[in-house]
Amino acid sequence: MNISIIIPVYNEVESLPELVQWIHKVISQMELTYEIILIDDGSNDGSWEKIVELSKYYPSIRAVKFKKNYGKSAALNVGFNISKGEVVITMDADLQDSPDEIPALYNMIKKEGYDLVSGWKKKRYDPLSKTIPTKLFNWTTRKMSGIKLHDFNCGLKAYKNDVIKNIEIYGEMHRYIPVIAKWAGFCKIGEKVVTHQARKYGTSKFGIERFINGFLDLLSVGFTSKFSKKPMHFFGTLGLITFLFGFIIAIYLTIAKIFFEAYKMADRPLFYLGLLAMIAGTQLFLTGFLAEMISRNSIDRNKYLIESKIDR
To answer: Which of 83, 127, 299, 303 could crosslink 4 through cysteines, CB 3.0-4.6 Å?
Structure first.
């Protein structure tokens, strides 16, 4: 299999026929074998029924339907797991990503040797309420990751099969796939300016909560990638500093009690600050790390209820 096209679908029934026909036309001209993997993320507008209908005319379609809406990361993760293509391309289902970009993305992976190529929607047709937070998000991610991409969240990306088989995404982590791939050892990451088209059908699924969750997930990705193998470098240092701060206060109060003044140590607020710092320092050795490790290793994190499936 040469190419796998993975498309998360959430209430995009109107755009699906045009999108599938467009993809089929483009890849047929390339004379390559391909599959279109449609992941219905709990749509309630008839998208699944349309996918079933399309699968009768396009044998290249494989599809999975979630029982409920799990989010884009969940859809992509399932698509990654079942894909068979040497090159995997992801795109959105709303027709804002152009299938005409597929040949160039494929060549950048196969001929130029990139591990991952991310699209850059240099000219966008989104409202300011979406473009301004996106610019801030991209700037922050560039600074934190050191990856020189302009558009981390572009849905149009291409990957070597090895990349998507060796990374895992959940929550809102689809925004940080280039970051996750880099920290997994896939460092040849490229960028291509792609056409961004105005939305033709339906409405945007973007909300302010996704912007907030995205930054929280960036902190999570950064922490787990850097400290999951050496957690005491973070928690141990922070806990030690906090504990020593409290211990120094306790030593000072003890010396003051013995040599300088007679008072009840427990009457001084500084005593409770020192005690609290020592307790907090001890807790920092374990609490945050254990919570994050439990989350990362949960067997249910990527467990989805699949209602229906089309496979070949």
So the answer is: 83
Confidence check: pLDDT of 206 > 70: no
Distance CA 88, CA 94 (A): 19
Q: Own/partner pairs for 161-167, CB < 8 Å, 24+ apart?
A: 161/4, 161/83, 161/85, 161/86, 161/87, 161/88, 162/115, 162/186, 163/88, 163/115, 163/116, 164/80, 164/83, 164/88, 165/80, 167/80
SS3 category, 301: coil
User: 86-107 pLDDT, tens per residue?
Assistant: 999 999 998 889 999 999 999 9
Class of domain 3-227: alpha beta
| Predicted TM-score of the model (pTM) | 0.74
Q: List pLDDT tens digits, range 43-76.
A: 998 999 999 999 999 999 999 999 999 888 899 9
- What 8-state DSSP symbol labels residue 44? -
In the chain, pLDDT over 90 holds for what percent of residues? Answer: 39
Q: How many beta carbons lie within 10 A of that of residue 257, not counting itself?
A: 15
**Six-digit token pair at 227?**
């400290």
Under a CB-based contact definition with an 8 Å cutoff, are residues 166 and 92 in contact?
A: no
Cα distances from 205 to residues 175, 210, 211, 282, in angstroms, run: 15, 9, 12, 43
Q: Residue 186 in contact with residue 165, Cβ under 8 Å? A: no
User: How many whole angstroms separate alpha carbon 241 and alpha carbon 243?
Assistant: 6
Name the pLDDT band for 223 (thresholds 50, 70, 90).
low
Mean pLDDT throughout 130-157? 81
